[in-house]
Design brief:
Blueprint lengths: L5 E5 L4 H14 L9 E6 L1 H11 L6 E5 L15 H7 L1 E4 L3 E7 L4 E6 L2 E6 L5 E7 L2 E15 L7 H4 L11 E11 L6 E4 L4 E5 L7 E5 L2 E3 L2 E8 L6 E4 L5 H8 L4
Parallel strand pairs: 1-2, 2-3, 3-16
Antiparallel strand pairs: 4-16, 5-6, 5-15, 7-9, 7-13, 8-9, 8-12, 9-10, 10-11, 12-15, 13-14
Length: about 260
Amino acid sequence: MDLKTVSFTASDRIEDAQRAETEMRERYGHVPPENADAIVALGGDGFMLQTLHRFMGLGKPIFGLNLGSVGFLMNDFRIEGLMERLQRAHPINLDLLQMTALDVAGAEHRALAINEVSLLRQTRLAAKIRVFVDDVVRMEQMICDGVLVSTPAGSTAYNNAVHGPILPLGCEVLALTPISSFRPRRWRGALLPQNARVTFENCSPAHRPVSAVADFTEVRDIVRVDVRREPGRGPSVLFDPENSLAERIIKEQFLP
């Protein structure tokens, strides 16, 4: 890739990231994000996800350098050789999910998700959720802490933590995964075509309030949520060729 100008951004919660940003700006120069060939994000996975959302509309590839804990969406941190790494980096275009949520007051809320759209109970009472796929009722009532729809790139995050399947990149499916399902007791979720439209209805919004979350955007007291894939709008993430995202997702399936 022919990337010559860089814009740096760093997590304000990680002191090492702040120091690294200062040093890298001095060494490689810095231009505003809208004028850069690439954006370099310094921090952890949470900051990388924020950066992807923040600059999604610019259409700039983003190269993450890990100064956090896990760094699944990041590359190994090194100050030296940045421009050479950018030239060799492989781009991955991530899928997006569009969440459209209707709350009890009748207001409609829209948000995009890179990882997942999740529904979560707001009180001590379990949620009661009806599940539709392409306007067909597939589950009349699920009693649970919540439920989520995950992209392949997001399948190793919250989806995996609640025992959902890890999805390889390019598999063209979405994961529909329950969160602490009480009834049906043994239902583990479903794999759906990537173009499926998933709808959730809160069966008891007055007594069992539920929130909906698209990555960082939360809508409380929802009545209905529609989730569908939003093709062609996802951000481009850069990875060192020896440590691609596709390879990381495969490795995750063999971790003890």
